[in-house]
């Protein structure tokens, strides 16, 4: 028995606009909207200087890495750039580098005093 829609058994098969098997297509664009922002230069510099501060210049570079890392982390938290993880890595390595530098200065001072 056919109902008013002209289908048998009361099941209406409808076709999506745009042709058979094709739903509504998303608008064409460049990439995905709302993607993660790229790391900022400050975050990358902080991480690199933190690494170099542990290896090469243990007094100056960790302080610069710490300052850049804090600035980059604040920017990432405000949504002005990415690289929050790199900024945190720079902050951590900056603190470790400062601690190693202070430990080295303390050991050198104690050895200098004991040699007198």
From TrEMBL:
DUF4190 domain sequence ranges: 43-103
UniProt keyword list: Membrane, Transmembrane, Transmembrane helix
The record's section on InterPro entries has: DUF4190
- UniProt key word Transit peptide: no
Question: Positions of the region Disordered?
Answer: 1-20
Specify whether Translocase is a keyword of the entry: no
Transmembrane regions: 47-70, 91-113
Write out the biased-composition intervals (Polar residues): 1-14
Name the domain of life this protein comes from: Bacteria
Indicate what this protein is called per its UniProt record. Answer: DUF4190 domain-containing protein
Task: State the organism of origin.
Answer: Streptomyces pulveraceus
Organism lineage: Bacteria, Bacillati, Actinomycetota, Actinomycetes, Kitasatosporales
